[in-house]
Design goal:
The complex is a heterodimer of chains A (360) and B (538). Chain A is mostly helical and 360 residues long. Chain A has two domains: 75-126; 129-357, MetI-like fold (Orthogonal Bundle). Helix content of chain A is 67%, strand content 8%. Chain A is extended. Chain A starts with 14 loop residues before the first helix and ends with a helix. Mean pLDDT of chain B is 84; it is low at 1-12. Chain B has three domains: 25-62; 72-267, no CATH class; 299-396 and 453-525, no CATH class. The chains are: A mainly alpha (360), B mainly alpha (538). At the A-B interface, α1, α4, α5, α6 and α7 of A face α2, α15, α16, α17 and α18 of B.
């Protein structure tokens, strides 16, 4: 008998074991390929886009002494031309002023007016301020509607409803609504709000379309949060003589609220990120006025807005790809991705925190 | 409520009533609590209402499409366009045959070049073949001339008819607005199709004569085949003769069809329907005839989905197994949020990434020498089904991963423990126990992933190349490298440009309806599979 120097139960190499190991490696690679692909998209846009955004900082004479032209200006055309042997790039307003000044100077000096041969690229200068405003307006309005409808539906489903045909029907509808493609929501919004209600392309039409689209997410998330509140809380309150509504008000909603809000943030990310539903219901390719420049209050609701996702679609499909246009393309994509990622990340982090905190 | 109890006790009335009483405010005969309940219940109903409204409005805008399509088909027949297309088909078949000849020539040139023969010599050797092919393609000239003439006539009839219809609408609008004088100014000359059509059907005897000459010329041209300088291609030439004979055999049938053709034959409802469902052409704003066939769009959507799932299913399911069964807790905590994070990347950003980076990168990859064995590589179209499919895979992966991971997580612990207790290794447990037990959940995850991919708009709109044609499947896998158009893409692209209420507009709504029902069907299947094949203890 040989001497046993090591643990008898230690694993010995065998074909089965190495097969297992290599299979596990395949699974591991699959996982990391996904992460790598996501990282590639993210990294490319952050890397190239941040140059546009951070390159647009300018100092100003008044407080706060700096400004970011990319984030605070409206989009305009970019003019690229050669002047006195050097290459110049200017936005629309700057270019006009410059041309007038040069022409006047030349005329004053008694020389012939200089000829400007500029190549123009639409939307490639200026910034994306109106798009940011439009997206924020769309998100705030649609989430207000969606939360009101969604949370009340969830309260009904989790607190009041007893299993029956009606509830089964509602649940089935929610489940199916979640699978409807976003472009179909866009068509529906176009057919109902834009044409039938005659709201035209407007904020209001966009709000309702987006709210209906995100409704299943909000309902499911809120119901989950409500279900997580222990039964004892309700029973304690009811035993003290409170009515059902008082119980919900004082003993259920306050504890479910953080959960409802965090999960609904995921809904916000979805609303902010969708393009197809707002294409024909709320988004304009370009608009000079800011949303608050309205004569009547009611006009505010019936105006179309520029939105970030739609702007990305426009600048990436309707204008050619070159070094001048790619700056604004990447910059817009970076700002948009940043906003959505921030929303999504905060939701994920908050949820993981809350999971740990509430343990009843 | 507490105050009520106090007052009842303080006054100390001799009561025949209960000591504890509740005063209830009533709204429409409902107590406050009931009102609240009804309010919440009503909100819950919103989901049902929205679903109903979507169906209703899609139907409302789309339903008239089939009527309008039927009218369009009826005009197509009445004005004789159909008649001309029957003859045109003959011309097109001939063109296909000449293309076959070109193909043979191309192959011969390639082979000869490989043997190191220079261009002039190749042309000299192929001279006999070229003379043959020229003779062959010239035979169609009379037919082509006839088709050209008839096209003019039919277009003229159709244009006059459409103008007349427009006048009628204008007149009706004037009358409705009470402007009789303006209405009377519009003269409507009703078209007598029976009289007009003679200009087309009257040519049948001329056609018969031309056709006979054509058939004879064709027969004569293939009696003697030229010898090719490349012997291996000779069988293809024989095959070509075979094809020509088959083509010739269709002539009598075509003539009979033309003779029996009647411009007054009614267009059935089913025709308007089948032209949409099985139509292989989506052709709009054409001077000749608009076709609304969903097949090219459907095939495009399906192809892209296949590519996406082909990539996403192994990755998504593999990652789900890895994270749930193999990964360390630390990895688990990091990977799950990271993949959820990927699902938050907006699709339009992915589409932009496809245009700016992935399209070029894939094309560059295909031009890499070491990969030239892959069918279809290298290719030149930057935006095609493959580019869109790869990006959609990234959209489908988080959906499939999350749901599949859930399904695996729901496998009862006891299953795994029992397997280990019997001495199975980890891999055996995963392959034989965990995966089969959660298979229903995984399959439904894949179905929901498919639904996600089918309904995705922005990526395919930006990256699929948007060419409305059924890819050439005879070329095998190369079909997946061709640009395609999709159902979602066509709605997004054309909705902004169409006339409201027109046939094109309604056709887009019907496409939306088809998408809607596909989504419902996939959802239904996913639920059914989960419910039917769920495995649980006991």
């Amino acid at each position: 008998m040989t001497t046993v120097s090591t643990n008898t139960f230690a694993s010995r190499p065998s074909t089965g074991r190495s097969l297992e190991k290599s299979t596990f490696w395949i699974f591991r690679i699959a996982t990391y390929v996904i992460l790598l692909a996501g990282f590639a998209v993210f990294g490319d846009i952050v890397f190239k886009g941040s140059a546009t955004v951070f390159g647009a900082f300018k100092t100003t004479s008044s407080f706060p002494y700096f400004t970011n032209t990319f984030l605070t200006e409206a989009p305009e055309s970019l003019y690229v031309f050669e002047h006195k042997g050097e290459k110049r790039e200017m936005g629309d307003t700057e270019y006009r002023a410059f041309r007038e000044k040069e022409t006047a100077a030349a005329l004053a000096a008694g020389k012939p007016a200089p000829v400007f041969e500029a190549a123009s690229y639409v939307y490639s200068a200026g910034g994306i301020w109106p798009c940011i405003v439009g997206t924020v307006l769309l998100v705030v309005g649609s989430m207000t509607i969606a939360l009101l409808l969604g949370v009340s539906s969830a309260i009904f489903l989790s607190e009041y409803a007893r299993d029956g045909t009606f509830v089964r029907f509602v649940r089935l509808a929610i489940l199916n609504l979640a699978g409807v493609p976003s472009i179909v929501f866009g068509l529906f919004g176009f057919g109902m709000f834009v044409i039938y209600f005659d709201w035209n392309v407007s904020l209001l039409a966009g709000w309702f379309t987006l709210a209906f689209m995100v409704l299943p997410v909000v309902i499911t998330a809120s119901e989950e949060a409500l279900k997580a509140v222990p039964k004892g809380f309700r029973e304690g309150s009811l035993a003290l003589g409170a009515t059902k509504w008082q119980t919900i008000q004082s003993n259920v909603l306050p504890y479910a609220l953080p959960g409802i809000l965090t999960s609904s943030i995921l809904g916000i990310a979805r609303v902010a990120g969708e393009t197809a539903p707002i294409m024909f219901t709320a988004a304009y390719v370009v608009r000079d006025k800011m949303p608050w420049d309205v004569e009547k209050i009611s006009d505010f609701f019936f105006q179309g807005v520029m939105a970030l996702p739609y702007h990305i679609y426009v600048v990436s499909s309707k204008i050619p790809q070159n070094e001048y246009t790619s700056r604004v393309q990447y910059g817009t994509a970076f700002v948009f991705l940043g906003i959505v990622a921030l929303i999504a990340a905060s939701s994920i982090i908050l949820r993981n925190k809350l999971r740990g905190r509430y343990k009843w | 409520m507490p105050p009520d109890i106090n007052t009842a006790a303080d006054t100390g009335e001799p009561s025949s009533k209960f000591a504890i009483q509740k005063k209830r405010t009533r709204l429409f005969g409902l107590t406050l609590d009931e009102t609240i309940r009804v309010f919440f219940g009503g909100n819950a109903l919103v989901a049902v209402i929205v679903l109903a409204l979507i169906t209703f409005f899609l139907f409302r805008e789309g339903s008239q499409f089939f009527g309008q399509n039927r009218d369009s088909l009826r005009t197509y027949r009445l004005a004789g366009l159909e008649y001309v297309d029957i003859i045109r088909q003959q011309e097109e078949d001939h063109t296909a045959l000449t293309r076959y000849l070109f193909d043979i020539r191309l192959k011969a040139v390639v082979q000869l070049t490989e043997q190191g023969i220079d261009a002039a010599e190749i042309n000299r050797r192929l001279a006999a073949f070229d003379a043959f092919s020229e003779r062959y393609s010239d035979t169609i000239v009379p037919i082509r001339g006839l088709v050209f003439e008839l096209t003019e006539v039919a277009t003229d009839i159709k244009t006059r008819y459409n103008e007349n219809e427009d006048y009628k609408v204008a007149r009706k609008n004037f009358l409705a607005a009470g402007m009789k004088a303006e209405a009377d100014e519009i003269t409507i000359k009703d078209l007598d199709f029976a009289k007009e059509i003679v200009a087309i059907t009257g040519t049948v005897s001329a056609y018969e004569q031309i056709n006979n000459e054509y058939a004879d010329a064709l027969k004569a041209s293939v009696t003697v085949l030229p010898t090719l300088p490349v012997a291996s291609l000779q069988p293809r030439l024989e095959r070509f003769r075979e094809l020509t004979r088959e083509y010739l055999a269709t002539f009598p049938g075509r003539l009979a069809t033309l003779k029996a053709w009647d411009n007054n034959a009614p267009v059935k409802w089913t025709e308007a329907f089948t032209q949409f469902i099985f139509g292989t052409r989506w052709l709009t704003a054409s001077f000749w005839q608009d076709w609304y066939g969903i097949i090219p769009l459907f095939v495009g959507s399906l192809m892209i989905s296949c590519i996406a799932l082909f990539i996403a299913v192994p990755l998504g399911v593999g990652a789900a197994i890895y994270v749930n069964q193999i990964a360390s807790p630390m990895e688990q905590r990091l990977i799950k949020p990271a993949i959820e994070f990927i699902s938050a990347i907006p699709s339009v950003v992915l589409g932009f990434f496809g245009i700016a980076v992935l399209g070029q990168a894939l094309r560059a990859l295909s031009q890499w020498e070491a990969l030239s064995w892959v069918p279809g590589f290298p290719y030149s179209e930057r935006l095609n089904a493959l580019t869109a499919g790869c990006l959609l895979a990234l959209i489908a992966v988080p959906t499939i991963f999350t749901l599949a991971e859930d399904a695996i997580n729901n496998v009862p612990r006891a299953f795994k423990e029992a397997s280990f207790a019997l001495g199975a290794s980890r891999m055996q447990t995963i392959v034989r126990i965990i995966v089969p037990a959660s298979l229903s959940g995984i399959v439904s995850a894949v179905l929901l992933g498919l639904g996600r991919v089918m309904g995705e708009t922005m990526v395919v709109l930006l990256c699929a190349g948007n060419r409305i044609a059924i890819p050439d499947f005879t070329a095998g896998f190369t079909a997946f490298l061709q640009p395609v158009h999709t159902m979602t893409g066509i709605i997004a692209q054309e909705m902004g440009e169409v006339v409201r209420g027109g046939i094109h507009y309604r056709a887009l709504f019907v496409v939306g309806l088809v998408l809607f029902f596909i989504a419902l069907l996939l959802n239904f299947l996913a639920q059914k599979i989960v419910r039917k094949y769920r495995i649980s203890i006991g």
